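Instructor's aside before we start: the two examples that follow are unrelated to each other. I chose them only because their records fit on one page, so don't look for a connection. First example below.
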Amino acid sequence: MMELQCVNIHGQPITQAAMTTMASIGKQQAAARRKQPDSDKPAGYHKGWRVIGFSPERVQAAREGRERTRALALKSGSADIPPPFNLDTFLKKHKGSPVRAKPFELHESALLCKELAERFGWLNVEVVALTKGV
């Protein structure tokens, strides 16, 4: 039966003993990395700024959906008639959507986008910092 022959990047043969030694060194290095104290690890990093709010189209669609549901309930004579659309309740219950899909790198540009979104009728617009880690 043939024995497996390994070579390094220079084409020189590597013995089984050398391969075993390299594997044990790699295991020792991995164990040392796992034992590294948490204080040496980075606490987290900043990933940018996101502008979040409620678009006028989304609010209008929710309003029309509620009116449609109420009209159907009234027409069918149902006992469970939903209350009329309440903007404050809608804003509290639902999560805002991002104004822009890609986060902003600079806080100033996120604030400018927030101002523009408010001018165009977005509601509850806020700038949120995105971080990764702790």
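Example two begins here.
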Amino acid sequence: MLGWLAVAAMLAVATVGLVWARRHLLLVAVVGRSMEPTLRSGDRVLARRVPLARIRPGDVVVLVAPAEMTAGRPTRPDAADTPGLLIKRAYAVPGDPVPVDRVPLLRRGGEQVVPDGRLVVLGDNPSQSYDSRECGYIAEPDVLGVLVRPRPRTD
């Protein structure tokens, strides 16, 4: 009888752990060259879900791809019911000066500082990156998390 209780307890702990991980962590595969040399296509990264207020400039973030980018294919090709994702570096967070030197598109808004609920992101490989230079600010609901660490490649 005690053996079954131990097994039930272990299953309960495992279930709680899985639920916690699902709510707090994301495992994302890198596709494309926008974050080279930091990340390469095929790398997998582990990200922790955090609110925008906990993101700092320089953090690598996982985002829902803006609608402008996904016109015609609003979902990922490998998972039809999930939105496309981007992995970029946070360049400016709410309250930081608007980086119009790096992101001229933001001159249109006229703001002196990045507004609340918005984020400016750039890829590490600018010539291969779709980022705030093309789509402007990223809205807070589209920010999913911050990179915890890369996962080892499996090739």
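The longest strand covers residues 143-151.
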